[in-house]
Specification:
Length: 240
């Protein structure tokens, strides 16, 4: 058996970051044979681009853990950002599988880097994450040859390629609309309010988009996201 990478994703409630967690866990011969640790690659053998002078581990046993993110917004524009060396990103060595938690904000998404960290950032740490479809590639490769893992061509178990929906901006906008609805349980004329009807429609639309994100066509997701963005900003033209 061999290490098999897997990830989970969580948007922060303030929409300022995406938390990506390696959920593989630690190797156990019976309970988790696909986890990190001997005889599979160990998290402690994942290094940054520049090795310390005292490093005496055979380079064949040293790895880079890499993350690439491409974001397609509601208009269908895709931006592929520079590959992130995750040991560099976390600013320290990994000691075990529990350290493999990565918080990504807009300042970490760089373009045109010459060396790590010197590219043009998509934003700052206080900017909300762009809504859209995030194509994420996560892989472990040899530090001296990013086409190989353990000296042989990198196989699918060492690569995670997934697309997720990030929609924190529109979700917050919809919830703000819902909070504007009167809280009275006895509703008469207010039930006919355009504000209420738009808010409930947007909430239903949001839930539909999120529920279908993993089986809908990408064009449908972009269209739904675009509708929500426009309704939050401008309202609708419906007479209701």
């Amino acid at each position: 058996m061999a290490l098999t990478l897997d990830l989970s994703y969580q948007e922060q409630n303030d929409n300022l970051a995406l938390v990506i967690t390696d959920v593989v866990g630690t190797y156990h011969a019976a309970d988790n044979p696909l986890g990190w640790g001997d005889p599979n690659p160990a998290a402690g053998f994942v290094f940054a681009d520049i090795q310390p002078a005292a490093d005496v581990i055979n380079t064949a046993d040293e790895f880079h853990l890499l993350l690439t993110i491409a974001i397609t917004d509601s208009g269908g524009t895709t931006t592929t950002y520079d590959t992130i060396n995750l040991q560099d990103h976390n600013g320290g060595d990994f000691t075990d599988a529990g350290d493999l938690v990565f918080t990504i904000n807009m300042s970490h998404l760089l373009e045109d880097s010459v060396t790590y960290g010197d590219g043009t950032a998509a934003g700052t740490a206080t900017d909300e994450m762009t809504d859209g479809l995030y194509a994420i590639t996560y892989t472990i490769v040899d530090n001296d040859d990013h086409t190989k893992t353990g000296g042989i061509a990198t196989t699918s178990n060492y690569i995670v390629s997934e697309t997720i929906l990030v929609d924190g901006v529109v979700r917050t906008g919809v919830y703000d609309k819902l909070r504007q609805i009167p809280t009275s349980y006895a509703c008469s004329d207010c039930c006919e309010s355009k504000t209420i009807k738009e808010a409930t429609f947007m909430y239903s639309y949001l839930i539909s988009m999120e529920s279908g994100a993993y089986n809908a066509k990408t064009e449908e997701i972009y269209a739904q996201l675009n509708v929500l963005e426009n309704m939050i900003a401008n309202g609708s033209n419906c007479t209701w």
